[in-house]
Amino acid sequence: MVDFLVQSFLDQLYPLAPAIHTPSFLADLKDNRQSRDLKFLALLISVLVVTLCTLSGAYDRCKELDPAFRYATRKEMLEAGDGIVRHLSPPDYYDDPSLDQWAYHFLLMLACGNTGLMQRAYMHHAQAANVLKQKDLHRVGSYHGLSKIKQQLAKKALWMNFTTVR
Fold first, then answer.
1. Over the stretch 37-66, which tens digit does the pLDDT of each residue have?
2. Distance (Å, rounded) from C-alpha 106 to C-alpha 132?
3. Dihedral, 46, 42, 20, 28 alpha carbons, nearest 10
4. What single DSSP character describes residue 45?
5. With 0-12 CB in 10 A as exposed, 13-18 as middle and 19+ as buried, what is 134?
6. pLDDT by residue (tens digit) across 119-130?
């Protein structure tokens, strides 16, 4: 089911919200990074959640594929995914902000908006903006020393965050 949802995200949502670097994300997923890196696990959960909350066909297909799929509504599933990450996060989770954390909050902002949870969408938007601010990505000098991939992701993150929910 994870492969189906990730592919659905890449095919249908990524063109509208390119919040990840696809080759890196897929390599990390294949390497099972989510089992040892909480920030990547959060990112993976957000990809799955935004796909299920945004694409009705994906949600319906998951219910068909897995009769034990226990979420009666998209909101219930969103609450569970967000709750898992909040529960697993150690107290120092935000001490070293990353673009994975930005993507997690940005994608959950979209999922919340698509399910009508606007106050939570605003909260995730503010947290995404805070990650960018902590990384000083609004300053040109902060891009020095970043790889080309990280620079591109950072620029996309800044502008996607700037042009969404206000």
1. 988 999 999 999 999 999 988 888 888 888
2. 11
3. -130
4. H
5. middle
6. 999 999 999 999
Q: How far apart are the first and last CA of the chain?
A: 34
Cα Rg of the chain (Å, integer): 15
Please provide residue 17's backbone torsions phi and psi, each rounded to the nearest 5 degrees: -140, 75
With helix as H, strand as E and coil as C, how does 102-160 read? HHHHHHHHHHHHHCCCHHHHHHHHHHHHHHHHHCCCCCHHHHCCCCHHHHHHHHHHHHH
**Cα 91 from Cα 96, distance rounded (Å):** 11
* Nearest to 137, CA basis, from 154, 150, 124: 154
Cβ distance 30 to 22 under 8 Å? no
The verdict on pTM exceeding 0.85 is yes
Tokens linked to 93: 């989770």
CB atoms within 10 A of CB 149: 12
